[in-house]
Amino acid sequence: MAPTIPRIGKSAPLFEGEIVRYDSRKKEILYDKISLVNIIEDNQWTVLFFYPRDFSRLCPTEIHSFNRRVKDFQKANCVLIGCSTDSRNSHKAWMERPRTKGGIDKLSYPLLADPSLKITSAYGVLEKSAGLALRGTFIIDDQGYLRSLTVNPPSIGRSVDETVRTLQALQSGKSCPAGWRPGRKTL
What we know:
Elements: E1 16-23, E2 28-35, H1 36-41, E3 45-50, H2 59-68, H3 70-75, E4 78-84, H4 88-96, E5 111-113, H5 118-122, E6 126-127, E7 132-133, E8 135-140, E9 146-152, H6 160-172
Parallel strand pairs: 3-4, 4-5
Antiparallel strand pairs: 1-2, 1-5, 3-8, 6-7, 8-9
């Protein structure tokens, strides 16, 4: 049976789980919990992106691209979350390792651990045979509705610029032509 991908305009699958995040005040990497219900209760949008595996070669290119744009997500009242099927311990080890040695250093957003495969399955991006996630990106509004989704195979990185642009277009509440940017004419 083929995985079911959530539908745009419908409620996004609820999730909760353990995250690894860098606390810049304490200057340490911490374990914590996160849930979509709490994010919605805080009236925030969510960008949940899935990536295949920690300690890989392609995934850090996206992880750092998202990190460079984290202020854009914060400005849009949006919680950014990266997720893979790795454990929280794997996420922490990867974050502790310097980039020059195959790590990702400290990020400005959390990584969600999904070793049970429940979240990855609920979002329809689990590649069962490999036990890893496809490169899915899901934009969820502040009411918990799925507003946008894209899915790429493991070998193709996504455009973080397009994710930011799509989030901004959705939040404009208007019809936005190709290449639209904030401040430009809508339809």
